[in-house]
Amino acid sequence: MTRRFLFLLGSSRSEGNTELLARRAAEQLPADVEQQWISLAEHPLPDFEDLRHDSDHVRPTQGDVALLLDATLAATDIVIASPLYWYSVSAHTKRYLDYWSGWLRTPGLDFKATLAGRILWGVTALAHEESEVADPLIGTLNHSAAYMGMRFGGVLLGNGSRPGDVLDDTQALARAKTFFTQEPPLARFPYEAS
Ligand SMILES: Cc1cc2nc3c(=O)[nH]c(=O)nc-3n(C[C@H](O)[C@H](O)[C@H](O)COP(=O)(O)O)c2cc1C
């Protein structure tokens, strides 16, 4: 199956550090790998409404929800490129993930079965020098992948505050060169044996 990477940009500004780092990593992908880039700020989802136990969800056919759903279903690899906001993913990113809960209940999608075995990746930029403060974001993505039966490629971390700062993080740029060459294992919750 041809690899198809979906890059979801979660920053509240364009061409920020997270996007720059994600683009550096993506440059290394082979030419036959398809790439789709979607800015969640430019395609804002409405507030998520939890209808899971009230009524059946209906598959969206137009607008940004349909765009994001179709792109998600078509991707072999989903790259969450979210800056670190308050130690976790950005609100744009979180809202997109909340929609997964609705799509899990949408008849005819087989959302979980479709995503199972596919790969979730993360890219994030943060201002803090000590990268362990990003552990909540990494946990969010790892556990989401585990819940979905997906593989998890980890999170490519870069340091920076102002746009462009991450280009001075030579270690991050070096990690970007090989980030997508990994063959990630199935994600596991911390309480599961690996
Ligand atoms: C709302 C908001 C929350 C932030 N929270 C954190 C944080 O918890 N830890 C941190 O190290 N940096 C934090 N930052 C700094 C950003 O992570 C940093 O500027 C990063 O480079 C932004 O990524 P971007 O350039 O891709 O937008 C925050 C920035 C904003 C705007």
Number of helices: 6
Return Rg in Å: 16 Å
If you consult CATH, what is the topology?
Answer: Rossmann fold
- The span between the termini is 27 Å
Give me the strand/helix succession: EHEHEHHEHEH
**How big a fraction of the residues is strand?**
15-25%
Q: For the residues shown, what is the average pLDDT?
A: 96
Main sheet specs:
5 strands, parallel
Helix content: 25-40%
How many individual domains? 1
Distinct compounds present: flavin mononucleotide
Q: Which structural class matches the secondary elements?
A: alpha/beta
Overall geometry comes to globular
Low-pLDDT residue spans: none
Number of strands: 5
What does this entry look like structurally?
The protein has 194 residues and is of the alpha/beta class. It has a single domain (4-180), classed as Rossmann fold, CATH 3.40.50. The chain is 32% helix and 18% strand. The chain is built from 6 helices and 5 strands. The chain has helices at residues 17-26, 63-74, 91-103, 111-115, 135-148, 170-178; strands at 4-9, 34-39, 77-81, 119-126, 151-159. A 5-stranded parallel sheet has the order 2-1-3-4-5, sandwiched between helices. Helix 1 links the parallel strand 1 (4-9) and strand 2 (34-39). The radius of gyration is 16 Å and the shape is globular. The two termini are 27 Å apart. The model has no long low-confidence stretch (mean pLDDT 96). Bound molecules: flavin mononucleotide (FMN).
